[in-house]
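thought: user wants a sequence for this fold. calling inverse folding tool.
action: design(structure=
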């Protein structure tokens, strides 16, 4: 009995010292608040035909990250104004806790794979991604991210490499991809690639460093703004993500052939990066910026009536919880992180538009990918 008591006390001591070492706290005061948009819900959850799907991935965005944004924004966000919700389980084929490459690949191909793998299966064989599958049906695709174009999430939608760290090989997969539009903060990385890779990308896409410079009649467009314009939100990124989301959606809509439709993936990449660094205030700013990109997608869907928007995450980062005290009306909130890595907690999914009803309940991340393919092609994977 004595031994059991001692073990219990030792356990308490261990648990106490562990939390004291790993809990990192942060606060935000007077967060810059924006008006949350509420759509009409007229075609939400209906069986109306779906022409376009917009998949928005908040990298590292669990419920606490959304709640941090919600309360810092005075108690309302566009994403939390939506009515259809589900949860997504994010485990990879070989790990309880996924990385962005394995989860991105699950969304992009409808198949789970190994951590660090990009667009390949557990044996390293290429998996067809959504843009490639949709191209067979005449449906065009695009990718927008606040990360580099070779970040794990965007790469999953065009590249096939066994490891996310293979930056030159991932760049080299871009010209042969099925993308019609991309926008990413990686001009510097692009310039470091071989002459051959840069030339191939420039032959496949019209590359611009500003959206003011897009020539008329462009078939395939790549937008690589100067690095200074795609920093973190705190360092002055400005409206790159919401503005480029709006531009990209209009661009794809203008290139659609015979009412076929499009697929767009939009990633808010730096929610994850802030949570890895256990930086609460920057994470909130990234979340608020991502919500304004969500607004652009929802407004597009609202006007179009045949567009489904899915907003979810690849995994949670940081094990974030919220502090007990705060004042949402003033944009004052605080949070605590328990890890500098990812967690296996299921992530929320929000959906708006025709077909949103298929994303209710608890589902695996690869199921979400397969549902997207099914809804746009009518074929089950
Ligand atoms: Zn991460």
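)
observation: tool returned 381 residues.
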């Amino acid at each position: 009995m004595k031994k059991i008591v001692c073990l219990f006390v030792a356990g308490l001591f261990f648990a106490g010292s562990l939390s004291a070492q790993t809990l990192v706290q942060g606060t935000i005061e007077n967060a810059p608040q924006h008006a949350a948009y509420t759509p009409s819900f007229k075609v939400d959850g209906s069986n109306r035909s779906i022409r376009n799907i917009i998949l928005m991935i908040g990298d590292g965005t669990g419920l606490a990250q959304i709640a941090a944004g919600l309360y810092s924004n005075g108690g309302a966000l566009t994403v939390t104004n939506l009515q259809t919700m589900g949860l997504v389980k994010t485990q990879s084929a070989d790990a309880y806790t996924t990385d962005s490459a394995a989860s991105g690949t699950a969304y992009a191909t409808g198949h789970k794979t190994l951590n660090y793998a990009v667009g390949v299966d557990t044996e390293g064989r290429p998996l067809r991604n959504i843009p490639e599958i949709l191209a067979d049906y005449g449906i065009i695709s695009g990718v927008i991210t606040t990360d580099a174009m070779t970040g794990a999430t965007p790469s999953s939608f065009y590249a096939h490499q066994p490891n996310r760290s293979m930056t030159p090989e991932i760049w080299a997969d871009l010209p042969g991809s099925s993308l019609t539009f991309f926008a990413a903060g990686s001009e510097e990385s692009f310039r470091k690639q071989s002459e051959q890779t840069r030339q191939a990308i420039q032959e496949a896409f019209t590359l611009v460093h500003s959206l003011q410079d897009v020539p008329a009649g462009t078939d395939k467009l790549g937008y690589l703004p100067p690095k200074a314009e795609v920093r973190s939100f705190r360092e002055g990124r400005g409206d790159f993500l919401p503005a480029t989301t709006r531009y990209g959606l209009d661009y794809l809509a203008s290139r659609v052939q015979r009412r076929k439709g499009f697929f767009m993936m939009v990633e808010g990449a730096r929610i994850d990066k802030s949570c890895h660094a256990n930086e609460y205030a920057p994470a909130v700013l990234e979340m608020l910026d991502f919500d304004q990109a969500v607004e652009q997608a929802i407004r597009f869907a609202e006007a179009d009536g045949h567009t489904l928007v899915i907003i979810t995450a690849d995994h949670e980062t940081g094990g974030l919880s919220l502090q007990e005290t705060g004042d949402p009306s003033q944009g004052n909130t605080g949070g605590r992180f328990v890890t500098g890595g990812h967690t296996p907690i299921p992530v929320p999914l929000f959906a708006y538009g025709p077909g949103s009803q298929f994303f209710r309940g608890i589902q695996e991340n690869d199921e979400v990918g397969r549902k997207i393919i099914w809804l746009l092609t009518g074929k089950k994977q």
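thought: summarizing for user.
answer: Here is the designed sequence. Confidence is low (pLDDT under 50) at residues 1-20.
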